[in-house]
# Entry
Amino acid sequence: MKYPLLALLATLSNLIFAQNYIDHIFINDDFPFHNEVKAGDLNNDGTLDIVALSNQQRFLTVGFVSPGLNSLQTVSIATEFSMFNLELIDLDSDGDLDILCSAPFEDKAYWWDNEGQEVFTRKEAPFADYNGFKIADINNDGEDELIVGQNDAVNILSFSNAQAQFLATVESGFDAPDAKSMEVLDANNDGLLDIITSDAFDGIILYMQTTSGSFNRIELLPEVFSIDKIEIADFNNDGNYDLLAASRFNGSTKILINNADGTFEETRLPVEVERIEFANLIDYDSDGDQDILYVDTGFGEDAILNVYINTNGEWETQQISTVFEDAENAVIVDIDQDFDEDIILVDNQFFDPSISILENDNPNNSKEIYFPDYVITPTITNENFSISSETELEYNVFSMSGVKMLDGKVTGKSIILSSNWTPGMYLVQLVSDNSSITQKIIKQ
# Structure
C-alpha cells in the first residue's frame, strides 16, 4: 500500500525541522488512533522504546527503537477493554519495565508483565481503576509509594513484587477530586512533599502535607473547568517549582508561579489558546529553563505544533509545525542519549497515522568529551555506588524512562545512595565546563 501523505510529510518535515530536528516518521496504518504515548527501556538494551495506547481500538503498540532511530520493530498487544492512563513501571520488581493501564468501565486496572523476548502477559493489578497516578517517596521513608486517584478518593499505597498495600487516604468522599493528573512538590519548602491534583470540575487542588501522612486541602483554581494535565517546573528560576495546568477548554490553560509559602500566583500566557490537545515541558531552545510544547487544535482545525519560549518567566509564542494534522499526544525524552530533549509524537492523521521521533539535532548542544580522571564503581550493584574524580564535576543520574533521580557535585569521592532504587539501568552524566560524558549503571 502506498502512503499518499508520506512524501509530503517527509518534505515538509525536512524544511521545518532542518535547523534543529531530524524527523523519523513511522507509519502504522493497521493501528490508528493512538491516544497516549510513553517511553522507557523495555528490553534493557540501553535504548528507550515507545509504548502507545489506543483507547478506541483497544490495543497497545510496543515499538522497539533501533539505536540509530532508523527503524521501529512493533509488537501489538490486544487489551480487550478500553484502557486509559498508560504508565510504565517495574510493578513486579524484577528489573524491567511493565505496562500498566486503567480500565474504568471494569472498575479494574491491568498490567502487562514484561517477560523479555518481546513477551507481555496481562495480569490484574492489585488496585482498582485510577485516574491520577504518581510514584514518589511521599512519607520520606526511603521507599517509593503509589499516589493514586481512584473513584472520588486519593489514596497512598505501598507496592512491592506486584503487591500493593493501603497506607493512607489523603481525601475521600464527595469532595475528593476526580484526578486527571497528579504531581508532587514541596510547595512551602518545609521538607515535606505535597500533592497537586487536577479535577474535572474543581480546577486544581493542593494537598499540603503538615505532618507525615496528614494533609490540608487548598483549592488553587476552583473556577477553571477540566484541567487535563499538570506539570511542574521552575519557570522563573527562583528555586521553587511552579505549575503548568493544561486544559482543552478555551483560555483555560494557566501557569501558576509558586510563592514558596503554599500559595501560587497566576501568570497569563501571551495568547489564550483556543483548544490545547496536549502540553509538555521541554527545553526547546537549550537555554536551561523549561519551555512549553503544545498543540493547538482549535475546533475542527488541523493541529498546529507550537512552543511557548520561556525567558526567565516571560513568554513568547513560536510556531514549529503544521505537518501533523491530528497530533494526539507526545512525550519528551532524550531518546538518542545525547543530553538534549527529543519529542515522540503520535499523529492520528486518518490515512497515514504515525509515530514520529523528532530528534533534537541542534549543533549548539554538541559538547567535546574529555575526562582524564574519573571512576564510577561498581557499575553493577545491589547497594550503592561511588563517583570519584580528581577535579570538581557535576553529576546527574537519570532512570531509563528519563526521570532525574538526583544531581550534585563531586570532588574526591562521593557515595551515591541507590540501595532503595528500583532494579534496572540508570545513566550517570558527568559534566565539567563544556564537556560531558555518560556511564551506565545497573541496579540489581
Remarks:
- The chain is about 5% helix and 50% strand.
